[in-house]
Amino acid sequence: MRKGYLIFIALVLLLAGCNPTKQSREANPRPKQLSNQAAHPETVPMESRGRILPDKRGDHNLPTNASKPRIESIGFLEPVNPVQAVSDVNEAGRNLTYIGFFSYRVQPNGDLIPLNDAIPLSAAKRNRAVPMLVITNFANGNFQPDIAHRIFTDPTASQRLIQNVIRVMKQKGYRALNIDFEHIREKDRQLYNGFLARFVPQIKKEGYPVSTALAPKSSDKQAGPWHGAHDYAFHGKIADFVILMTYEWGWTGGPPMAVSPIPQVRKVVNYAVSKIPREKIIMGAPLYGYDWTLPYKKGGPPAKRVSPQEAETFAHMKSLKIQYNNRDQAPYFFYTDQRGKKHVVWFENAQSAQAKFNLIKEYRLRGIGYWVLGEDFPRNWSLLQDNFNIRKY
Q1: For residue 327, is it within any domain?
Q2: How many CB atoms lie within 10 A of CB 43?
Q3: Which residues contact 274 (CB under 8 A, 6 or more apart)?
Q4: What would the pLDDT profile of 44-99 be if each residue is shown by its tens digit?
Q5: Which of the 8 DSSP states describes residue 328?
Q6: What residue numbers bound the domain in which 116 lies?
Q7: What is the number of domains present in the chain?
Q8: 182 counts as catalytic
């Protein structure tokens, strides 16, 4: 009996030493925590918490949305009515990396005309959207070349502007800057470059990323006040990123057409990536359309801006046929008003938004910039989430 007991004990010990579960644990040690910050290095000097994979056993498969491109998104805001501005921020803020406050208007002596921005600034921060200060040479209803020229050529005014920008950003909590100087004299191109060479490093030294807004060009030969002074290659070197204003082909004073037709946008992006690193390029997109009275006559009644949701709802209520232009990738419809006047409405919908998202993916751009928040287009935001992971700082 004693001999049989000893044999039983020996068998138990032998089996314990060959436990396959123990060997498996030693061969497959507990996985370490992984952070996507290392896999996706930030190009803008801001801290991001990143995402940590769960530290537990299992397949450790990434979520399905990990295959979506990670981009930055910008929404420009005109906070004319602070209460409405807060509503606009709350509607879109969670889908935006930056909210650009348009605009602090530059004066010839370097002073700034401020915005009533305190309340919407707080809303932007609650939505974890980076508040971006936008400075412009805008006055009296248009961009002013004389203001830009004075800032470019007067060292005292230029330095005063730098000091004012830094002061406002620190006082109000802005964390990024956008320089949107437009309608500049073509001969001032080198003067603008020289201004940026002095201005941008001083802002970046304070820790703020700096971007510039660029008119949509398809070659460097495009001249005139809206295009000639914008040097794509130089902006691509001096700025952290650029925003291509790829919209307003169809505009309030022009003939009826898509606001952002894909063939024209593609030409601009083709040129831009030849001069600027693609990871620095934000492609612009409209959140609106226009309603033209027909027949169009130059100098006639201006087209009325309409939101995509407003246009689509109107068409459905009136049982109007919405058509889609496959070349321009944009929807439109006709209607007759109560006075018997015929109209055409070009606008945006989910299909036209997807066409723009496809371009961003195709060219592997940094992201998308929207003009302008406050236009009702809810389908855009859900579709943006379906296509991309939006970077938050």
Answers
A1: no
A2: 15
A3: none
A4: 333 222 222 333 333 334 444 558 999 999 999 999 999 999 999 999 999 999 99
A5: T
A6: 70-287+349-390
A7: 1
A8: yes
